[in-house]
Amino acid sequence: MKKRCPRCSSFLVKKIGFKRSSITTKRGVIAKKLQRYLCNVCQKSFTLEVASKRKRHSKALITSAIKRYVEDNTTLRPVSNSIGISPKGLLNWLMEYGSNAKSPLEVARELKPKWSGLLGVDGKAFKIHGQEFTILVAQDVQTFDPVFFSVVERENVENAERFFLIIRDVLRYPIKGIVSDLGRGKAFVALIKEIFTGIPHQACVVHFFRYVNATIPKSKKSVYYQENCILRQTVKGILFAENFNDAEETFQRLLLAKSLIKTSYHKKIIRSLTRHFDLLTAHFHHSVLVRDNNVTENLIKQLNRKFKQSGGFKNIDNAYNFLKLWFIYYRLKPFCNSSRPYRNGKTPIELANAKSNKTDWLTFSQRNRHT
Fold this sequence. Notes:
The chain is α/β, with parallel strands linked by helices.
């Protein structure tokens, strides 16, 4: 077939070599070439094939690198070095896919998960360009599905209220019970009672006992070492009692001995225990509740490990884009070696009886499925 010059429509053309380029794929570097022509009439060179936008790396290589970074316990540099690019280049890919990733609300609208109704809530502080921010996480305790997250400047009443209202009014989570820590500055307690009226609320006993251990000195050189050990064991007996009668009996004995306590930190613990005794023992009265927030705490630990590996974020958009990818990965990651065999091989989304397709998590995460 004769070639026609696209400028003067002449058929008097000849080949003058190739336009060469290369693309890096998972299998290595692949050379590409495009035939060039010269018109003998107008002396203009051209190519007949439409050259696509220059890409030095294949989509398969890009998505593979993003998955490795999000899924593995690694940093940007080892992944970028393994494919011959800079960490900045890998970060740009990550942000491109992250900005196009679905939000938790979009995922809920698409998959329509059927959650158990027991909501675990926790927060974690992290830094963005040296400034402290907090990520608030809400997770369905029975299915392990993180239903919503929010990045806020601080864990205060205003931000916590907005967080809970989105869960109630926008996400429409079928709330039956809530497990949380007491919140920084006790921000969660009053808000949960106000926003989720009549819903039972359990304060995590593990968080509270952690507070007790941090407050009571452990040094054997302390003048009140024996009293410290007795109080610590007494509080532990209340928090982890097998039934409410045992917890209440131990608590009443502690109150009877209150007048004998002299140290300020002992009095501080007893005041806090007295104020929150009903919240700490709510699981005895409501079968839907559990006494701790270990499920959400474990998610926070995994996320915190990734925060440390990332070395921090330069702005809030970068943090939010990464978190959208990470949470979708977590929701579509199958369980393995679970203590409950029925979970093994299933993802949190599948445990929530959502209509999950079998595409990989990165493909699913994209709004227009361009992966």
